[in-house]
């Protein structure tokens, strides 16, 4: 007899939230790479701040994008699904159930008390 039954109900937000950490990581790496190139450029010390940013469009665009993502709340959306899944597991444990990270409901076997 199969002890773990998978039901197709969802207890996590959506599958779109899988891409949010990837977007945040890519933009963060681009910003860090652009910042490194911006800081090691000898022209950075010789020109004004805005001219320096104009000379390094990769850093400027990635930095503005990262700031925009944070203002849009991506940092909350990246962490929220794991918090929701953990809370779902806590509640479902009382009913001898659980859910995986994709949101599938897992029915655990009943404990038979004699």
UniProtKB/TrEMBL annotation:
GO biological process terms, semicolon-separated: lipid metabolic process
Keywords (A to Z) from UniProt: Cytoplasm, Lipid metabolism, Membrane, Nucleus, Transmembrane, Transmembrane helix
Protein name as it appears in the record: Nuclear envelope phosphatase-regulatory subunit 1
InterPro entries linked to this entry: NEP1-R1
Recorded topology in the membrane: Multi-pass membrane protein
Pfam families: Tmemb_18A
Originating organism: Anolis carolinensis
Subcellular location: Cytoplasm; Nucleus membrane
Record field: transmembrane: 12-36, 56-74
Domain of life according to the entry: Eukaryota
Membership in a protein family: Belongs to the CNEP1R1 family.
Primary site of residence: cytoplasm
GO cellular component: cytoplasm; Nem1-Spo7 phosphatase complex; nuclear membrane
